[in-house]
Amino acid sequence: MYFLCNYYLPSLRNISNSKSLRFVLGHILKLDLLYNMDCVAGMSRIPEASIDLAFADPPFNIGYKYDVYEDRRAADEYLAWTKKWGEALIRTIKPTGTFWLAIGDDFAAELKLVFQRELGLFCRSWIVWYYTFGVNCSKKFSRSHTHLFHFVKDARNFTFNTDTIRVPSARQLVYNDSRAASKGRLPDDTWILRPQDTKGSFTPEEDVWYFPRVCGTFKERAGWHGCQMPEQLLGRIIKACSNHGDTILDPFGGSGTTLAVAKKLGRRYIGFELSQNYAKQIQVRLNATRLGDPLSGADEPKVSAPSTAARKRKKMVSQPALIVPVKKRSSASEVNRGIAEAFFATLNGFPVDRVIADPDLNEQFTDMCIRLGLPGKAFDWNQRLMNLRKAGYFKGLPRSLRTAFPLEQKAFDRYKFACEIAIQQFEHEFEATLDRVLCDPCMASEFDRYVLTMVPDEPSSLKIRWFALRIRKAAKYISKTSAKLNSIIPMARNHEAPFGIILSKVPAEPGLYWLSGDERLYVGETENLRERFEIQFGHRKFDFWRTPLDRLQLAFRSVTAPVVPLTKHQSCWISKWKPIGNYEKLAMQP
Question: What does pTM read for this prediction?
């Protein structure tokens, strides 16, 4: 067994009898880490009464195929094992702490009695999480729900943050009743997926909780674990039953959702996972998670399940949709107020640019606009939101969370050329500015696709769009500083076919280069010419304005000791040769 954190320690499997292993197991485990070990052994190393909230999604004992665990035990054996890990878990929970258990039908009643009667916890709620994407059965009713038990140690003294999980009431959504509480109400104890899809079932205005099971087609799906919990479901539990800085425990790491959501919401965490394969995948997910990142999925009822692409849907007889009746907004002031309401409901602490550029946040924003009855479509709402921000409509808001990526400057240099070329291509071919592109979800997706044709790996849509915005924001500064230059750097005379260049001969130094083809010219700059060429020309995926590969020409010049920043040299080159390929605002006008 070994620990997983920001790096992997050497495996200790072959020294189980050594002093080293006894030293590791004999000491208290640290927080904010995932441990690849049996949870009972691991929880014995957690200080007593130190955990604020524990969430357990153990094996259901229904024969699910795990890679290192046998999920088909005799009933008595399974219950005895449950009591064993339950005792270890309860020992770690504070007197005011909370424990949530997710379990299937087969042992739900038995496990409730184990924790309530034998282990002394108090059951506050028995939640039924219902989803329509259940397991299809041929000789019984299809399984489409999971049980969630909310236990506490002290029936009178425990954490429950009511205001963090309120939802609009029927009086607010349907009847516009002045007697409705302005803050909304607590959700019911049934959490349900897309009730509007089932005729005669619950309707959205009934305030049931519903979250989609994370299916294979959902963006949120990790892809390597078959029993993944939705982030919004864990988000509701963690927000309600813990406070910022509290410690969260998950004894069965699984897909890592509990730990990832805890990290996003500013909680400390500790988790265990028996499978080495799952543990490695969880750590990759945790490394990519940052404090303040939005939770995947939507927390609003009407937008909780992603729509299925039209090309994947089978044709069927349409049924009238159940729609929450809302008053249409027509005047400019009403629409502006609705746009602001949708923004405040979905911003998650981020600024306007992030809500527009982030596909997940923007989907929540546009769906909220639909729910509020705003006229228009996604492009109209995004553009109006951007205009409101430019007009100072949101001045005075608390400081927004900063969008940052690991090794950001290096990542920016890695993708800058592709974002810059894409910006100019869309302005040249579609007469669409970057703002216009980002406000239109379809065009923004096409922008992402175009950038991906120029880089060997696949950066996220958010990273692509955020770096494009960074280029746009820097344009004014570059234009002003380049105007102060008095000389033009001579263009390198040697020409090379870019895909035939010998990369080992390219200096690994800052430099400038130009790339021409079909009477177009791109002038680029980078902190490392060799690395840039490896990215830009080291694979055959590159698409330079759809120019045939054999018609591209390359020239470059290293700048070992630049007198001025490279971006200023780049602007000089642009002003002299007036290339179509660069973002036009970077050019210094003669």
Answer: 0.46
